[in-house]
């Protein structure tokens, strides 16, 4: 099962998904382990108790959990047992994402957001053969969805905005604002709609309200306009372009090729066949990005399909080569993003472009890790303009895919390169 990551997957930047600096990683685990040990003589909260019961009622899940802790990379894993993991879940599901601060090797203050804490928690455990089996089990994902839904209720409650402050570990502190404004995103108050721009928390009543914030009217214009242009559907970092995709392909192998049948939820009809031989564009969002989706073209919503899938599953690999014989096993989920387009919880929106040379475009919103809600805000039959909102992700990081038909000749612009952060609504390709 173990295989080295492909060259393409090594292009991913981990910022916001897991800590870049090892000292932040240590501080994060020290914090959650200390909090978990303070409550390990108390009953679990209702959500974690229900999750524990679902696991214990399935002998296969119990066995896979046990194997996962045996197989996890030694010396790197910080979580010692299922029992400890459950108490950490008690901590994480009653708290909003925040920043962590530390000092680097030069004794300089550093800070990084951990917008997807449960991803960091399950990261190493998922990079095992047992984790691969466990996290793909429908019974595990049903239990996990209930846990994440309960956490989502908290993140939509007023108490969850308590990390939206200007202290060292707050989203509006020095390090938080820097991460939110980095990569050309723009000054926060000038870029996003703030219910009260004079308040420290900018008036956001909950963590989720902050996470799904909207842009100011002129912050991301659709430029240039043109019937032959494809516009960026999500503010995101470009991952991969693949042409001549197959109806069926071995997306679980090293190359993680795209398989139309599997991406579209095992669909077999004239619509799915129109994409065979077509082109895929995939990019991923960090927790600091804008998390609403926009239409890449002028067109009419043909169909909307919700597809159940996994939340923390990844393709196990040998990690990233650090040189001198050392490898870092962390980050398997982010290295598995093409595979996740076939396996993770996702929504597919089919758009019939007004331009017949473009035809039908499939937008796929991939709910990675904690993103247990893919909310669609358009309806079938509705006409949309390029740049109009289609929907949004809640509660975590995510990825998105655009699929174009086999008769569409696309020319991507030269600056649309893997690893480059691309603002939403800007033109990424033209039909030639």
Q: How does this structure look, described?
A:
It is a single chain. With 432 residues, this protein is of the alpha+beta class. The longest helix is centred in the middle third of the chain and has 18 residues, at 138-155. The protein has helices spanning 22-38, 46-56, 59-71, 82-92, 117-126, 129-136, 138-155, 174-181, 188-191, 207-211, 260-263, 270-273, 332-335, 337-343, and strands spanning 98-103, 109-114, 229-231, 236-243, 279-285, 292-294, 299-307, 320-323, 326-328, 345-353, 360-367, 373-376, 383-384, 389-394, 398-404, 410-412, 421-422, 427-431. It has a domain at 229-431. InterPro entries: PS_Dcarbxylase, PsiD-like. Residues 46-179 form the L-tryptophan decarboxylase PsiD-like domain. One of its GO terms (molecular function) is phosphatidylserine decarboxylase activity.
Task: Tell me the layout of helices and strands.
Layout: H1 22-38, H2 46-56, H3 59-71, H4 82-92, E1 98-103, E2 109-114, H5 117-126, H6 129-136, H7 138-155, H8 174-181, H9 188-191, H10 207-211, E3 229-231, E4 236-243, H11 260-263, H12 270-273, E5 279-285, E6 292-294, E7 299-307, E8 320-323, E9 326-328, H13 332-335, H14 337-343, E10 345-353, E11 360-367, E12 373-376, E13 383-384, E14 389-394, E15 398-404, E16 410-412, E17 421-422, E18 427-431
Antiparallel strand pairs: 1-2, 3-18, 4-5, 4-17, 5-15, 6-14, 7-10, 7-13, 8-9, 10-11, 11-15, 12-14, 16-18
Helix pairs in contact: 1-4, 2-7, 3-6
């Amino acid at each position: 099962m173990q295989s080295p990551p492909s060259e393409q997957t090594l292009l991913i930047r981990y910022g916001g998904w897991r800590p870049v600096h090892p000292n932040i990683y240590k501080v994060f685990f020290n914090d959650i382990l200390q909090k978990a040990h303070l409550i390990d003589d108390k009953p679990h909260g209702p959500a974690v108790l229900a999750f524990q019961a679902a696991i214990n009622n399935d002998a296969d899940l119990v066995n896979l959990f046990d194997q996962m802790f045996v197989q996890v990379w030694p010396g790197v894993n910080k979580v010692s047992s299922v029992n400890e993991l459950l108490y950490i879940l008690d901590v994480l599901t009653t708290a909003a994402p925040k920043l962590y601060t530390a000092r680097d090797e030069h004794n300089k203050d550093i800070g990084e957001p951990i917008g997807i804490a449960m991803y960091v928690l399950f990261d190493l455990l998922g990079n095992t053969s047992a984790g691969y089996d466990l996290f793909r089990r429908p019974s595990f994902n049903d239990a996990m969805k209930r846990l994440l839904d309960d956490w989502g209720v908290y993140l939509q409650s007023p108490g969850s905005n308590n990390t939206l402050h200007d202290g060292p570990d707050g989203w509006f502190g020095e390090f938080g604002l820097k991460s939110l404004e980095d990569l050309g995103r723009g000054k926060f108050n000038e870029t996003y709609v703030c219910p009260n721009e004079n308040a420290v928390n900018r008036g956001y009543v909950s963590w989720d309200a902050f996470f799904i914030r909207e842009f100011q009217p002129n912050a991301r214009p659709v430029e240039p306009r043109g019937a032959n242009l494809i516009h960026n559907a999500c503010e995101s970092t470009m991952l991969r372009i693949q042409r001549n995709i197959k109806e069926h392909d071995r997306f679980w192998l090293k190359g993680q090729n795209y398989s139309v049948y599997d991406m579209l939820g095992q669909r077999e009809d004239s619509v799915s066949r129109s994409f065979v031989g077509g082109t895929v564009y995939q990019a991923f969002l960090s927790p600091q990005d804008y998390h609403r989706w926009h239409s890449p073209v002028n067109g009419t919503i043909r169909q909307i399909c919700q597809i159940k899938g996994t939340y923390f599953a990844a393709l196990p690999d040998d990690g990233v080569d650090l040189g001198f014989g050392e490898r870092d096993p962390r980050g398997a989920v982010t290295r598995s993003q093409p595979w996740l387009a076939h396996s993770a919880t996702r929504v597919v929106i089919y758009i019939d472009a007004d331009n017949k040379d473009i035809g039908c475009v499939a937008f796929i919103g991939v709910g990675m890790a904690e993103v247990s809600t893919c909310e669609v805000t358009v309806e079938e039959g509705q006409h949309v303009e390029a740049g109009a909102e289609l929907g949004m992700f809640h509660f975590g990081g995510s990825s998105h895919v655009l699929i174009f038909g086999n008769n569409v000749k696309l020319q991507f612009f030269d600056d649309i390169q893997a690893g480059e952060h691309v603002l939403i609504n800007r033109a990424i390709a033209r039909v030639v």
